[in-house]
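User: Some background: our group keeps a shared notebook of sequences we're curious about, and every so often someone picks one and asks for a predicted structure to add to the entry. Today it's my turn. The entry only has the sequence so far, pasted here. Could you supply the structure so I can complete it?
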Amino acid sequence: MKPGHDDSIHVGTFDQDALGGEEGLSETPSLHNGTVGWFGDATHFDIGTEDNDGVCLVKVTLVAGHPRGEPRSPDGRANGHRILAQLSMPEWRIPKPGERCMVAFANGMDDSPGAGIIIAYPGKNPIRQFAEDRAMLDYRGYDLTIKAKSVSVVCEDGDQKCGTTYSAQGGAQLVDETGSGLFVKGGEVTLKVIDSAATSWARCRSHSQR
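Assistant: Of course. Here's the predicted structure to add to the notebook entry:
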């Protein structure tokens, strides 16, 4: 068990199918198919905190190593080796129980809990708003937080452009291709309109700053 994590979370012993030999992982990296969670276990993750090593461990059942003639568990999921796997930066999302996942083991790593890294979640595509010319980030069922020095979203279609930027230094900005837009910073809201003749400004401040 990794230091500081819940001692009730355990991991079974790998066999040669999963690790390539009795001494641990083989010299060749391996990739395994599996599903999130262990059958009969209500908790499918152990989140990293300031009181442990800070590494989130997710329970995964691999396809490899299932009993002969029993490739699936009673709930229809993978029925092989039970492992603990880490998440991969920069996306920090705890997958739902039963989600299919791909777990990679790097060469030279031992068979300690967390040696595997979840690198992908194959699944069904969205039915709506997804097509040849429509891409989607789908985080339904989750609250999403984006952390960065600044975050920009730019919409562009030919000569038409519109963008929004959020930053600790510059505040929030929503502008079009002319530079006109809405600017929010330090309790002040500024509306800026630029045309070929002149630039117009309108400002609104909070009562405390007047």
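Suggested note for the entry: The chain has two domains: 1-140, 150-209. Residues 5-25 have pLDDT under 50 and may be disordered.
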